[in-house]
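Recall from the previous chapter that SMILES is a line notation for molecules. Here it describes manganese (II) ion.
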Amino acid sequence: MENPDIVPIQPTSGKVVPRYAGASTFARLPELRDVPVCDVAIVGIPFDAGTSFRPGARFGPQAIRQASRNLRTQYHPAYNVEPFMVQQVADAGDVACNPFHINQAIEQIEAAATDLLAQCGAMISLGGDHTIAYPLLKAINQRYGSVALVHFDAHLDTWDTYFGAPYTHGTPFRRAAEAGLFLKDASMHVGIRGPLYSRDDFKVDRELGFCIVHCDEFETIGIGGVVERIRDRVGDHPLYLSIDIDVLDPAFAPGTGTPELAGMTSRELLGVLRGLAGLPVIGADVVEVAPAYDHAEITSLAAATVTFELINLMALSPKLSPKFRPGLQENQNQS
Ligand SMILES: [Mn+2]
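With both inputs in hand, we obtain:
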């Protein structure tokens, strides 16, 4: 049961302090150190040494926080919930990771995520490039066991190596498959499109345990059909969502490392996420925002809005409700 003594500390209303003023945390949330308990932590992971094309996602977390000022956070009619009243959400700052040593950075990210998951019920990570999904999934597995992984991306990210390097932003889900970090019969990619390195890429990807919703399927089966396919695949397994902002068309997200034409619209992405309401979402990341290539905060606003949708999904997640608050109650997920 939720501890009735704990009243969530909410962000300042935009009616009292204008949204462009006040704290520079995500959605002007309190910082983790200022809340007695935390259900959902938002954490920045400013790491981009795994990028294969445009660098710059290390500046993603702070750009997403800045754009998140635009959000009205009191009530979300699409989910019919007050996401900051039914759960304590806080900004946990950024993970310090080595920009010159990928292997060490991966260890630092896994350690920081493990530590955070011991303090908080769940976390949403703001990248950073997609390399970070691998250490995040390792930490998630320690807490929740193997999870259903739904990966929104233009690209498979299941390639083996780049220039001999095993840990890059194009390889996290190959490493995750090798380590058994996701359920092979419950995981999928959504939004895949564009040319590949080889004819075998899809075959190898399928053998690793993924199925694919190709981006063109939005034309044929629509948002509702895509939602149905995801829900059928995921079932009631604990669900981790990894969202590469390049799943959106460059018209909706130009500020990213490897843009790919003919992508999802922002309406399609929000529509699919809203269709997942009620599923046991236990963690998520939003990655690959590279602000130097952005215009008028288009991409960082998309990422901030997606992050807020994820917070709403967590407010409705049966795995996280009643809320897990370490130190105050039993961990229902281990019972
Ligand atoms: Mn990616």
